[in-house]
Amino acid sequence: MTTKINIGPIHPSTHGVLRLVVELDGDTIVGVEPHIGFLHRGVEKLAENRMYMQNIGYMEKIDYVAPMAYDDAYVAAVEEAMGVEVKERAKYIRTILLELQRIASHLLWLGTMSNDLGQFYTLFMWTFRDRDKILRLLQEHAGARMFYLNMRPGGVVRDLPPDFEENTLQVLDYIEKRITEYEHYLESNQVFIERTKGIGVLSREMAIELGATGPVLRGSGVNYDTRSNKPYYAYSELGFRPQVMFVGDSFARYKVRMLEMKESIRIIREAFKKIPEGDAVGMPIRLIMPQAKNRIVTVSRETPRGEAFIYMIADKERPYRLSIRTPSFINLSLIDEIAKGSRLADLFAILGSLDLVMADVDL
Amino acid sequence: MLTFSTSAIANWLVSLLSSASIVKQAEGLAAYAIGVAILIMAFAYFLGWIERKIIAKVQARHGPTVVGKYGLLQNLADFMKLLAKSNFFPKSSDKLLFAVALPAMLALSIFLILLLPLTPSTGIGNMANGLLIVFALFAFMPLLIFINGIASGNKFGEISAQRSVIMMMSYEIPMLIVIASIGMLARSYDLVNIVESQAHIWYIFLMPLGFFVFFVAMLAELERSPFDLREADSELIAGWLTDVSAPYYTLALFLDYTKMFLGSLIVVILFFGGWSGYGLLPVFWLVVKALIFAIFVMLLRATAVRMKLDRLLRLGWLALMPLALINLIVAYLLFVM
């Protein structure tokens, strides 16, 4: 006999308004059915009624943990529609900022995941403290802590502040030390290992078949990262290497993200060495100014959660149609496949390892 | 064993009733009970504050600072706020059991503290089998959690109730084996005798293994991290407390710290020489030792990752049980034979 329980939409571990109908046989999960749509804002439709430059603010709210990633993806789509080249220095600046954003996002994920595993908010507080240092850096550049609005077609809103490099390198040293520490704490904790290793295994074949993206895909042993497979900005010059683990369990996904943070730190350091001088400022905000030809544009960008894919039919002043494939939505759809057969307590270790942002799922 | 103890209670009651100074005795008892109740409340209140502060320090926060000096009155403010809210029993709940279970648990834990000897001459049940009686009654605790969980009519409460019973299966037997080895060392189940037999060396040094087993079992009994499976907040929302509304929730919070006090007292009496210390009042040493133990448990809560149920069962039967048995045999060979 099975019982059905409702987890969410109000529940401490669903990170937002996710509702899972879980079918349980004793303590074993028979099936998980996600119900979504509680945070649907209709971003795609809203975008159709606004000028190109007005949409950036909406795009940022798609993923409030890593707003700059969507900011960038949308602006890249606009650039392609308008046929604008990104300035060389701006490419490096974008790479640096996006990787900083990735570290911030992964730090938040690390805190919430350990929270899901029953850690009493300790790691959560620590990672939030570290993340705040990055937010302050981004604030120095963009003027805001969360919603930056700093991408402009052709470049960024302004050049990096004069002491940005020095501050960033300091913060990176600090964060690298902290990440190594957290890794040591977690991986020497037998209970953490037991709760993640061998839990929620997603095989390589299933990962490809179900369309998993980002760290979830790379945790299952697929060497695919938009940053290296469809290189953009300065990634190919910086020698970016995608991080891959082969087991496909929660621990592998955790490890991929930890390695990714270290890789991001390496890339940022590299970028500061190679960053060229010159102009980096893009177009100013003017509602009428961006004029695009009527054509179909596709852009894919590696957000911290996976590959975000934008399909835009450009019109003259505004997108005729904007369609966004968000990574969280795809990764959430895996939950039934990978949670089947595990215990109820494991469901939260699995959910945590998928790194879902509900705003990203519901769009 | 239990027949002895029941007859002891019966004898005590008979002597109480037949004695001429029955009123005087009752007065003495009542005064003692009130004194202990004040001690419990003060300890529970202070423990609540200290837990907030300690966990905040671990997490690089300040904890409560605004209400009162060092935030000492924060808990009082929270308590008042919760009491001011309305009570509510869900439609699907068994209202009688739901209303009774939590107060019963609180009453039980206060009664158990009254049974413990806080000084050589106090404690209501100065009887031959005090230790056994305490643990016989202590075993009601998971049962009452089960009742509360089922009676709440909530599925999370139900899962929590099931977990409670399964957890009990895993830690209760090793705990009782350790208790048997303590009784063997002290040659008595009288709590006063147990403390007095530790005058030269505490039992934690004689039976470190036994202490470890007892400590783990006690953490599980007290629902402390990493064994807080019953009210696992990231999984079961609040488990058996999910549908408990504000006034009852204050009881639950109070119960939490009362149980913590009870557990620390039991550990101190059994392993850390009870009230033995230099100078000052004996009860002072007892409370200070209990406080140190409680702080240690809090530090665990700030750092540990929650264990899974099946893992706890394996731990109980494949690790704690053999360890408890080894401890029993070693203690017998070294100190009794």
Largest sheet of chain B: none
Order of helices and strands of chain A: EEEHHHHHEEHHHHHHEEEHHHH
β-strand number of chain A = 8
Number of helices of chain B: 14
- The global form of chain B is globular
Distance between the termini of chain B: 23 Å
Amount of helix of chain B? over 70%
Shape of chain A: globular
Give start-end ranges of low-pLDDT stretches of chain B: none
CA(first)-CA(last) distance of chain A: 37 Å
Mean of pLDDT of chain B: 83
Roughly what is the average pLDDT of chain A, rounded to an integer?
A: 87
Q: Give the amount of beta strand of chain B, in percent.
A: under 5%
Q: How many beta-strand elements of chain B?
A: 0
The most extensive contact between chains is: A-B, 31 and 29 residues
What report would you give on this structure?
The complex is a heterodimer of chains A (363) and B (337). Chain A is built from 15 helices and 8 strands. With 363 residues, chain A is of the alpha+beta class. In chain A, the strands form 3 sheets. A 3-stranded antiparallel sheet of chain A has the order 1-2-3. A 3-stranded antiparallel sheet of chain A has the order 6-7-8. A two-stranded antiparallel sheet of chain A has the order 4-5. The radius of gyration of chain A is 20 Å and the shape is globular. Chain A starts with a strand and ends with a helix. The relative contact order of chain A is 0.20. Chain B has one domain (2-6, 89-336). Chains A and B meet through strand 1, helix 4, helix 5, helix 7 and helix 14 of A and helix 7, helix 11, helix 13 and helix 14 of B.
Concise description?
Chain A has helices at residues 43-48, 55-60, 67-82, 88-116, 122-142, 164-187, 190-196, 204-210, 214-219, 226-229, 250-274, 327-332, 335-339, 344-354, 358-362; strands at 3-7, 19-25, 28-35, 151-152, 155-156, 296-303, 306-314, 319-325. By secondary structure, chain A is α+β, with helices and mostly antiparallel strands. Chain A contains 15 helices and eight strands.
